């Protein structure tokens, strides 16, 4: 949408605060049960995943469509950010407003960035004003592994889990002391440094620890292009500076009795364009998570886990030298309490959960946004395994002080046709709570906005014989009361001077995801393709910034100390706007990487992205990186 130039400073503040939304439950302490999923793809059936049921399960017993990105894959990827890493996974698309430090959105199966739940070590993150996670502030160097669960999970995680859940795990200490350190440099004067120490003591009173810290910076490149209302003709680069620290500590008081603490802090100072100006417009963002938990074996078949956590997502924007109109500040705080009980009944598991979540928003520049809301949640699920049959049923009630009670339910069934082939089918309901921006932002939000509601049905097939992995999933997710962003506002345009967000549309997220890999000697061939149709049924248009087809293909080679690979990222055309008037062209990116184990403790990495220097846009009039090279050296001692 187009805005008058005279309102640029105010509009920049609103755009930065709401972009993740417009461009397109508290969690359990999953750090405690099992945090070591560092296995190769050939062992995919034996991976343990926590997020799909909030309890450790072998992936072969999980009905939901899941994916694990393990530590080796992250290290070998040479990805510049977590968004870069996610872009190469099936079912996921991204949108960015420039380089790594700028605003990014992650779409799962065509769902908006604010229709997905993001967790770090079981702690839910995200801004209550935009409703989406601040992806740019999440440090990739702190991540041990990532679990992605596709499809609605509101019965497990409450509001916003319409498209899926992404859970990020930091490193957990185990065994002898381990020390790691890495340094790297690349295009755009990018520099990265990080180090960690972890381990555990033995005996009946086991103590485990893991501490990590990192720093990265880059001069970047101009974020905008001519045609963008924020374009700066002076051509200054939009770089960033990020520091982070994270840690996990746990202590076993007695057998089956464990207490622990996890934390993460990330500070990001990122530049952005704000029209013709020599002023250094920049945003300062702080992401802070902390959680304490107690894991207790109450009876031989009853395990209890209590977690208290707090997340702070603070952002201050400095768009001009004017101390009033050039400054905006919005702070979000979320406090969560969760009590989960897993009761084994033979080979089955009954799970009972209570959760309390309080969201608070404080803004000195936009006091109308300030306020809070609380949610009390009760949930129950039952996981059954009988021979070749798998069954899961779950129900949840989320009672909000703002929008009342929302009940969701899910039913899933799986059948092992053979030892290597499994079929699954599921149905689930979900909802998304309107964000504080959609409710209260002056001249934009409408306090009567209702939650969006989703109904998803899907079926899948999975094959895994240890050498070949194949999967196919079909999904049909119907969303009602979709909140859309319109400029000008179709009613009371004088009141809603920045347009408005309101419930009006019905949308369908429908598609097929195909993926597979096969090992041929020292080579592994892999690929995935998504054929989807994410449409707004009210206007019969494709949802903004989502392609009807996108894919990733790769060939990996590994023998001895050398590993190398080639990747091909593909996306069809997309529309940048809800009216489907502005089209973004399709693109294909070719990437190369290689790692070499110099000694048992030293390894080297080189990655060359976009080797053909492809020009493309993920958001209209915003630049993307050209060809880039990154070289790194890593030391690891154990």
UniProtKB/TrEMBL annotation:
Cell compartments where the protein resides: Cell outer membrane
Coiled coil stretches, renumbered: none
Superkingdom, natural source: Bacteria
Keywords attached to this entry: Cell outer membrane, Ion transport, Membrane, Receptor, Signal, TonB box, Transmembrane, Transmembrane beta strand, Transport
Entry annotated with the keyword Membrane: yes
Listed Pfam families: Plug (PF07715), TonB_dep_Rec_b-barrel (PF00593)
Membrane topology label: Multi-pass membrane protein
The keyword Transmembrane helix appears for this protein: no
Entry's Gene Ontology BP terms: cobalamin transport; monoatomic ion transport
Signal sequence, start to end: 1-29
Transmembrane segment boundaries: none
GO cellular component: cell outer membrane
Annotated ranges, domain TonB-dependent receptor plug: 61-165
Domain TonB-dependent receptor-like beta-barrel positions: 194-611
InterPro entries: Beta-barrel_TonB, Beta-barrel_TonB_sf, Plug_dom, Plug_dom_sf, TonB-dep_rcpt-like
Family: Belongs to the TonB-dependent receptor family.
Protein name: TonB-dependent receptor
Organism: Glaciimonas soli
């Amino acid at each position: 949408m187009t805005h008058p130039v005279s309102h640029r400073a105010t509009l920049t503040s609103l755009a930065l605060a709401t972009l993740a939304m417009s461009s397109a439950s508290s969690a359990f302490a999953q750090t405690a049960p099992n945090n070591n999923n560092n296995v190769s793809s050939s062992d995919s059936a034996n991976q343990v995943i926590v997020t799909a049921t909030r309890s450790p399960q072998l992936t072969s017993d999980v009905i939901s469509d899941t994916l694990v990105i393990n530590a080796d894959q992250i290290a070998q990827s040479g990805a510049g950010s977590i968004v870069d890493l996610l872009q190469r996974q099936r079912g996921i698309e991204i949108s960015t407003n420039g380089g790594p430090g700028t605003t990014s959105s992650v779409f799962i199966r065509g769902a908006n960035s604010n229709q997905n739940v993001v967790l770090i070590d079981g702690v839910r993150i995200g801004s209550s004003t935009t409703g989406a996670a601040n992806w740019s502030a999440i440090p990739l160097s702190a991540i041990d592994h990532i679990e992605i669960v596709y499809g609605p999970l509101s019965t497990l995680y409450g509001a916003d889990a319409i498209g899926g859940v992404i859970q990020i795990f930091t490193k957990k200490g185990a065994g002898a002391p381990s020390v790691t350190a890495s340094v790297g440099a690349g295009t755009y004067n990018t520099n990265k440094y990080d180090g960690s120490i972890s381990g555990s003591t033995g005996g009946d009173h086991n103590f485990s620890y893991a501490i990590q810290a990192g720093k990265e910076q880059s001069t970047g490149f101009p974020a905008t292009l001519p045609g963008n209302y924020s374009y700066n003709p002076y051509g200054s680069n939009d770089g960033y500076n990020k520091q982070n620290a994270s840690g996990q500590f746990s202590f076993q008081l007695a057998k089956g009795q464990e207490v622990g603490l996890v934390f993460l802090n990330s500070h990001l100072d990122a530049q952005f364009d704000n029209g013709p100006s020599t002023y250094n417009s920049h945003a300062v963002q702080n992401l802070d998570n902390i959680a304490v938990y107690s894991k207790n074996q109450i009876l031989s078949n009853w395990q209890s886990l209590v977690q208290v956590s707090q997340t702070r997502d603070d952002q201050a924007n400095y768009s001009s030298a004017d101390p009033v109109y050039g400054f905006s500040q919005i702070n979000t705080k979320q406090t969560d309490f969760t009590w989960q009980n897993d009761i084994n009944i033979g080979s089955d598991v009954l799970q009972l959960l209570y959760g309390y979540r309080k969201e608070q928003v404080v803004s000195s520049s936009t006091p109308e946004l300030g306020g809070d809301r609380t949610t009390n949640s009760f949930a129950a699920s039952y996981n059954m395994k009988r021979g070749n049959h798998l069954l899961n049923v779950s129900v949840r009630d989320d009672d909000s002080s703002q929008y009342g009670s929302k009940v969701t339910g899910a039913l899933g069934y799986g059948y092992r046709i053979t030892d290597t082939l499994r079929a699954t089918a599921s149905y689930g309901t979900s909802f998304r709570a309107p964000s504080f921006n959609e409710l209260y932002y002056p001249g934009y939000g409408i306090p009567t906005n209702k939650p969006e509601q989703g109904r998803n049905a899907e079926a899948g097939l999975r094959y895994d014989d240890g050498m070949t992995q194949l999967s196919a999933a079909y999904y049909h997710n119907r969303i009602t009361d979709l909140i859309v962003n319109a400029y000008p506002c179709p009613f009371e345009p004088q009141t809603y001077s920045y347009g408005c967000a309101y419930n009006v549309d019905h949308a369908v997220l429908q598609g097929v995801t195909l993926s597979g890999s096969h090992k041929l000697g020292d080579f592994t061939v892999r690929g995935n393709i998504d054929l989807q149709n994410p449409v707004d049924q009210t206007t019969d248009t494709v949802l903004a910034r989502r392609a009807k087809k996108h894919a990733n293909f790769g060939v990996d080679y590994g023998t001895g100390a050398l590993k190398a690979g080639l990747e091909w990222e593909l996306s069809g055309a997309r529309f940048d706007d809800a009216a489907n008037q502005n089209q973004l062209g399709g693109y294909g990116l070719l990437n190369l990487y290689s790692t070499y184990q110099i000694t048992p403790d030293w390894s080297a990495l080189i990655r060359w992205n976009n080797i053909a220097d492809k020009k493309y846009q993920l958001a209209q009039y915003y630049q993307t990186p050209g060809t880039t090279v990154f070289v790194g050296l890593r030391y690891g001692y154990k």
